[in-house]
Design brief:
Elements: E1 3-10, E2 21-24, H1 36-39, H2 46-53, H3 58-73, E3 81-87, H4 93-107, E4 111-116
Parallel strand pairs: 1-3, 1-4, 2-3
Helix pairs in contact: 3-4
Length: 126
């Protein structure tokens, strides 16, 4: 089984981290930031997780990303596989996605670490 590093981040804070696979969640999935009641919450809060994971397509993308990690990990020069997933501010979609992906990969027997680069930074005013 592979060692997998997952890094969630916000494109509005800095450039994406180096990764074998980068998932951009900004344009295709509903942004909890637009809901005033969710804006100052993070993926640590259940209403944010429910909003993100309830968005059509998110669960399918988690599974597709897990399949891509499996493919990368099966290569002849397999080592740690790094996945970066980003949204606008890095507080809602990206960390929720990262945690869901980590759960799927751990259930498949991989060793997984998760780091949320921007989740605890101030809300980006936009």
């Amino acid at each position: 089984m592979a060692v997998v590093e997952i890094i969630s981040f916000g494109y509005l804070h800095d450039a994406p981290p180096a990764a074998h696979l980068t998932i951009d969640l900004r344009h295709h999935f509903r942004d909890p930031h637009v809901a005033p009641e969710l804006r100052y919450m993070t993926a640590d809060d259940e209403p944010v997780r429910a909003a993100v994971l309830g968005t059509p397509g998110v669960s399918a993308l988690v599974l597709a990303t897990a399949a891509a990690v499996e493919a990368l990990a099966s290569g002849p020069s397999a080592g740690t596989v790094t996945v970066a997933d980003g949204c606008a501010g890095g507080r809602h979609r990206a960390p929720t996605f990262a945690r869901a992906l980590a759960e799927v990969l751990r259930d498949a027997g991989h060793t997984v670490s998760v780091r949320h680069r921007d989740m605890n930074k101030d809300v980006v005013q936009r």
